[in-house]
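Limitations
The structure tokens in this dataset are predictions for the assembled complex, not deposited experimental models. Users should treat interface geometry with appropriate caution, especially where small molecules or nucleic acid strands are included. An illustrative entry is reproduced here so readers can see what is and is not provided.
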Amino acid sequence: MSTSAVLRRTALYESHKRLGGKIVDFHGWELPVQFESIIKEHEATRHRCGLFDVSHMGQVFVTGPGALAFLQKVNANDIARIGPGKAIYSHLPNQAGGVVDDVIVSCLAKDRYLVVVNAATADKDFAWFSRHAKGFDVVLENKSDYFGMIAVQGPKAAEIAAMIAPQMAALPRFGALELELYGQKSFIARTGYTGEDGFEFIVPNEIVVRVWEDLLAQGRSLGAVPCGLGARDVLRLEAGYLLYGQDLDDDISTYEANYGWVVKLDKGDFIGKDALKKQKEGGIKRKLTGIKLLERGVPRAGAPVMIDGKEAGKLCSATFSPSLQAGIGTGYLDRPDLAPGTKCNVTLHGRELPAEIVKTPFYVSPNLKKGA
Amino acid sequence: MLDPKKLKYMKSHEWLDLQGDAGTVGISDHAQKEITDVVFIEPPKVGRKVVQGEACCVVESVKAAFDIYAPVSGEIVAVNADAVKDPALVNAEAFGKGWLFKLKAGAPAEASKLMDHAAYDEFLKAEAAHGSR
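Predicted assembly:
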């Protein structure tokens, strides 16, 4: 545990303080966990719009004639499926089938890609890429310190994003665009981590405050509010998204994480393919499983999940879900065969609370169903 | 709503309204602001005997669980069913509709160990100064 390391601040730190953000240490970054209230910020994002500072996330550019071949080697998903202007979610497997990181890869041009990586893993990923880039005609650039990142999420996100970047209205889901904002080369993708329609603005640090303040000023009339990591965590868990380092790591495979759709075994060779193929054929011993409490209560990470009086695993992510008005969580259970509706118990404060196995995502936004 | 100036306080931010041996317990407005978004209350069982300083109730926000301690010894005689059903009452009115439980104090004199409003105010100021390093 790093307790002595100097905490890093995003370019928006002073803005957060001014807006009353409650600052916490998140993987070495000083970021707001909430502004006014997690519940209110969650509600705003589900029904209107939430703005999130995600500048701690990293950006790695892969450029050159060998860019696609290299990305195919390090990704489990089939990067050939996206052409210029599109983005795709993927996992970076290691040789054993564990996950180095989960990422979003955007194709900017035939020979130019942007990989958005997690904050705590940015350096690890770059070292991993560098190690495996030998023999490929590519240039790797870690621009994580140069760019800030803002997520604009919610049913009003398109309207608000279009106020400062009119092209956004026409951008399809998982579309990615390179454009100039305030004279600076920037990138926007119609992606997010909340289960709502939304955009992620990747802009140079020198204009990130301006972009944030403009989005907020323009968005206020449509009900947009600044949101912290607390709301972000609740939103992403409801939407069934993984949090790397908590739900996923080097020793957990994509299949175990119940994200098998990411792995494209038919796309040709890639790191970890043999191990993943073996898992697909031979089955897995544990699987990330969703549970929902049947009584009022708030499950917490680390809480044991009991099935037939025996511990089947512990929760790795858990919270009170405002959308479901119930406690929800996910954990690796050593019973990958469990059907939704199976009864279980979750141990909280020494008491066993009744719960049941449920399908993930816990919540599917009606705004997304409309085909945004 | 109760007058916060007439209540007694613990360092762990519970308030106590004591009339003879009849006590009502809640958390202070400062505490509800710190916790924000109370989403769950696990109240003590009516009839349970508690000693001063004993954890007997849990208040939970989205992010964390907070133990609530008995300000004085006694027997739990009521819990706030409205607040259990709608925990946001604690945020809306910490000194009123958001009360947590009532107890019959076994030794009301124990309340003299608690802070009065002025002392609690000073305590909060000292905590804030310490917290903002």
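Some entries come with short summary sentences. For this one: The domain at 8-55+145-238 of chain A is CATH 3.30.1360.120 (Gyrase A; domain 2).
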